[in-house]
Amino acid sequence: MSEAVTRPSLAMRSRSCKIKKTAWIGLAILAILFVAVLVVPHFIDLALFKRTYLPSIEETLNRRVDVEKVRLSLFPMPSIRLSELKVFDSQLATDRIFFSAHQMQLRLRFWPLLKGRFEVSELVLDRPIFNFAKHPDGTFNYSDIARKQISAGTRPETRKRADAPKAASDGTTAPLLIPGNLTIQEGQLNLISKEELPITIKGIDLSLRNFSAEAPFPFRASFSYPGLKTVSLTGEFDYQDDKALLELKDSRLKIHDLTLPLQGNISNLTSTPRLNLSTRAQEIDAKPIFQILAVFGLAPRDTEVSGPMDLQMNVTGPSTSLVTQVHGLFKDVKIHGKRALRGTLRGETSIRLPMGGGSTGKRLQGNGKLVARDGELTNVNLIKKIERVTGMIGLSKDERRQATTFQKMEADFIIGGGFAEFTRLRLINPQMEVTGDGTMTIERPTLNVAISTALSPQASTRAGRGRVTTFFKDSNGRIVVPLRVVGPVENPSVDLDTRKIAETGLPRNAEKGFSSFFKQLFRSR
């Protein structure tokens, strides 16, 4: 009995000893790590870093670099932290800051650090601000860096040279490897030009992982733009060192709840980068497209749009003079605008926007052919004026309502010089046919349109048999009245086109009476 009791007791004592031994070993490891965190930084010569690498950075960038503090930490991972980093502009403008960061963190490999070498595994920029200024000749204030350094700094043979900077005065070396990982947190980009208003892009987050010239590597980027939700881009980059080319692979652009495939490349990285990016999508909802255009003043904000469309967009050219081209194909898109009309839209438009001086409206170019069906004019003041006219020519209540609707409305237009020129306008409903041409300003849309309103044969017959009306009848017996629509889209004035009236040879007394008659009909409210 005593032997059976003794055996379990010995086993329990053995397990207890093992647990205590493991606990002591764990405590010893923690103590060693704690001591390392406190002691090791004192043996790392940060003065070596300052006198070796900061001058090298200044020489590489050809810019003065200021750092408030440089400190080393081992927790949660070894890293050198540079606080309040400032890189000033080139020697031509040394009073301006080209780049600044609240903190730049160089995450280091542990074992090389114990040997006194700084090998960077990741570069992290916290709240950086990039100030890109456009010079009068079209170049930017980073062009000199690209021309001087990019080609040399990214090629494999040069990396070997960069891995071994100049020796310090004490004879030691401290290789600083170009990191394969880059992280930007809450960055900001300021685009400055004397010709245009400054553009500020905030909330920039960027992540590059496993940078390599041998195989594609993943990236993720996002930023905020006034009036838009967060814009994000994910996918892979394929960097071709011998061609100084960065190609996008399996990339997706997400903007305003719209996800689009993005393909293309950025070439000429050794001097002035050149973009060739494009996206193409079919059967997408037109609503987010118009919301995006409205942010840039290219579509009215008070217009509701929904329905299928095809989209193709290209951004091409050197970074100093980019050109954006958009082609849209509308497929029964429902449109309801408070300014002008509602209906079902079909047709296509192409617009081209070069980057440069002047407002967006003046730089915009393009053309289009659109057809709206089964719609209605929604400008309230204009509708009232049309109703008053149709009421005076003997139309019933239903016929007056029909005068504000249309079975079909067509518009062919050309955009350029700050104007949309309507080369052909045509509106058809049961009571009239309207044709014309004219212009509309892009910014603060204002109309200057000449139209001819031809009443249907039935409406013309009921309009009266007076002497004046006979001068406006065409060969088919329809009354055709020339009108001019002038003023802001929200509330244009509608008057007789006196030039057209003079061309008809209307007698002066008849012209005076008829003009007075229509002025009463179309007088502004």
What does this structure look like?
With 525 residues, the protein is of the alpha+beta class. The protein is built from 13 helices and 23 strands. It has helices at residues 2-43, 46-61, 110-114, 143-154, 156-162, 286-295, 360-363, 380-392, 397-402, 457-462, 467-470, 498-503, 508-522; strands at residues 65-66, 69-73, 79-88, 97-108, 120-133, 181-192, 199-208, 217-224, 231-240, 245-255, 258-267, 274-285, 303-306, 308-318, 323-337, 341-354, 365-377, 405-416, 419-429, 432-441, 446-455, 480-488, 493-496. It has a 23-stranded mixed beta sheet that branches. β19 and β20 (432-441) form a beta hairpin. The radius of gyration is 36 Å and the shape is elongated. It starts with a helix and ends with a helix. The model is unreliable at 149-177 and 520-525 (pLDDT under 50).
Class by alpha and beta content: alpha+beta
> Could you report the average pLDDT, rounded to the nearest whole number?
76
Strand content: 35-45%
Oligomeric composition of the shown chains: single chain
Overall helicity = 25-40%
Radius of gyration: 36 Å
Q: What does the overall shape look like?
A: elongated
| Low-pLDDT sequence parts | 149-177, 520-525
What is the end-to-end distance?
A: 116 Å
Strand runs, count: 23
The main β sheet shows up as: 23 strands, mixed
- The total of helices stands at 13
